[in-house]
Specification:
The chain has helices spanning 34-49, 71-81, 88-97, and strands at 2-10, 16-22, 25-31, 56-62. The chain has 110 residues and is α+β, with helices and mostly antiparallel strands. The protein has two domains: 2-66, Double Stranded RNA Binding Domain, CATH 3.30.160; 68-97, no CATH class.
């Protein structure tokens, strides 16, 4: 059995798309369900790399960045979990210009 990582992103309409890196190739496809996506990748791996579909075991990984519009949103939400009161725009200002808004100190809490 060959383990192959399948990274999946879910869209707001319920469909999914995924990517597989195999032998220096990046395969990308979309489907209406995770099961359908796995079937598509089994066919692609068989077609392009002559891999027996019955010998593939997908290791599913969900792309957490797919839920956010950009990297600033990821940093903002992560910092908010830790107690930051900065808005997403204020987070962008901090990262791009190194400044915080008036009245909001930059503190590191251990």
């Amino acid at each position: 059995m060959q383990n192959v990582q399948l990274t999946i992103e879910k869209s707001s309409d319920g469909s999914v798309w995924g990517r597989v890196e195999y032998d220096n190739d990046l395969l990308v496809d979309a489907a209406k369900s995770e099961e359908a996506l796995e079937r598509k990748f089994r066919r692609l791996l068989k077609e392009f790399h002559h891999v027996d579909p019955d010998k593939i075991k997908f290791k599913i990984a969900y792309d957490p960045t797919s839920k956010f519009d950009n990297e600033y949103a990821i940093v903002h939400h992560s910092a908010a979990i830790e107690g930051s009161t900065l808005t997403e725009n204020e987070t962008r200002l901090l990262l791009e210009e190194g400044t915080t808004p008036k009245g909001k100190p930059l503190q590191h809490k251990a």
